[in-house]
Amino acid sequence: MGVEALRPVTHGRVLKIAIPIVISNATVPILGAVDTGVVGQLGAAAPIGAVGLGAVILTGIYWVFGFLRMGTTGLTGQALGAGQAGEVAALLTRALMIGLAGGMAVIALQVPLFAGAFRIAPASPEVEAMARDYMAIRVWSAPAMIALYGVTGWLIAQERTRAVLVIQVLMNGVNVGLDLWFVLGLGWGVEGVARATVIAEWGGLALGLWFCRAAFGVPAWRDWPRVFDAARLRNMASVNGDILLRSLMLQAIFISFLFLGAGLGDVTLAANQVLMQFLNITAFALDGFAFAAEAIVAQACGARALAMLRRGALLASLWAFVICLGIAAGYALFGPLLIDLMATAPEVRAEARRFLPYAVAAPLLGLGPFMLDGIFIGATRSRDMRNMMALSLAIYAVAVALFTAALGNHGLWLALLVSFAARGLTLGLRYPALERAIGPRA
How many C-beta atoms lie closer than 10 Å to residue 307's C-beta? Predict the structure, then answer.
């Protein structure tokens, strides 16, 4: 049993993991606002659209590699709980190799990737030309950004979320400073924004590796027979592949929600987009507690410490429940004000207010699937996650077919909430099997 498993699971331990992640997430929108504000000083609409579109496309491509963060957290936490220090170091090496290789693949395939993206999201010739220039520069930090997923997962598994916060703050700070210098000082325009991001992302990886320096101080990180052990590589590939499929199905639910909303009219689409920002805020707030569950559950699984697993899952979920209650109450009380801040068109404001109750209910219905995702990631029960997501996607599709034709956008929102409930219920039904796999020890 690892040393980590001997530490008691307390409210303080959960909050120590969660709070830096919540703060880190809160800094993310700031960078987008600064990017927009800086290019907005150029006095034309095209640069704003180009940076926004280019950033969305690259973020979408990088998002595919999000499995690396989640899989690395679960596997590293389990190795830590089992006291396998050599495997902890080897997992960092594997994650870095996958991240760097994935980034190089994105660079090599950038032409078809970007062409496909513009077919899905066409823009005016001027905006598309600027966006291509932006992405052609920024894509060179793809290896750093994807490898950083692995570094982040490795640090979270060891409950080192303060380091994750420092990395995020440094990246954003460097990016903002260089944005101002390159665009307003040197007049580099959209290309200046891209260059600032490239430098910031490589700097973020460098800082992340510095935080991991202890792992490079022992020979295990380059114990190549261990790093390339076939059984361990197959297990990592299986876990990551299942998480990728699960994430793609989850994304299919949200993308289809927006596309189906577009078929109900421009005003409804705009109102739904405003209310989706409420769901994004909820996700940012809950991330920290899901990560806490991931880290503690992973260590408990490695140590085969069932009591630790239960207490970690319970305390993290308890705090997440408190947060969800607060968010739901905040949306109920201040939702109209938030809507007015995000939209100026009277008809969009009125439509968003009509459907605000669904955004109020979403945090409460989303609590179960959000926290169970963290628990199952920590336990690396990725096959269950994949299969239950497939079932939930099918239930969502049936709900859309049943409700939307009769109830319009009300039916669409009901179907989305049904998908939340289905994810929580199906994963909850698989939880006893997760405990049985840990065994009765500790």
Answer: 11
Q: Is residue 233 one of the residues assigned to a domain?
A: no
Pairwise CA distance, residues 33 & 35, whole Å: 6
Residue with token string 């269950």: 384
Say if residue 400 is in the same domain as residue 270. Answer: yes
Residue 235 burial (CB count, 10 A): 14
Task: Say if CB 143 and CB 100 are below 8 A apart.
Answer: yes
Task: Look at residues 236, 64, 206, 234 and name the one whose alpha carbon lies nearest to residue 146.
Answer: 64
- Whether residue 424 sits in one domain with residue 355: yes
**What is the rounded distance in angstroms from the CA atom of residue 79 to the CA atom of residue 332?**
43
Q: What is the largest CA-CA distance in the chain?
A: 66
Q: Put residue 211 in one of left, alpha, beta given phi > 0 → left and psi -120 to 50 → alpha.
A: alpha
d(CA 407, CA 129): 41
- Tens digits of per-residue pLDDT, 129-149? 888 999 999 999 999 999 999
Is the same domain home to 382 and 266?
A: yes
Token output for 123: 């823009």
Please state the pTM of the whole predicted model.
Answer: 0.91
CB atoms within 10 A of CB 228: 13
CB 280 within 8 A of CB 26: no
Angle, helices 230-262 vs 382-407, to 10°: value is 10
Higher pLDDT, 259 or 45: 259
Q: Which two tokens stand for residue 192?
A: 């200046």
Residue spans of alpha helices (H) in 304-381: 306-342, 346-354, 356-378
Structural domain for 259, as ranges = 240-442
- Cα separation of 204 and 102, whole Å? 17
Spatial distance between the Cα atoms of 375 and 261, rounded to a whole number of angstroms: 32
Confidence class for position 30, pLDDT limits 50, 70, 90: confident
- Round to whole Å and give the CA distance between 57 and 131: 10
What pLDDT sits at residue 394?
97
Spatial separation of the C-alpha atoms in residues 294 and 378, rounded to whole Å: 4
Residue 395 identity: I
pLDDT tens digit string along 408-427?
999 999 999 999 999 999 99
CA 208, 210, 215, 221 dihedral sign is positive
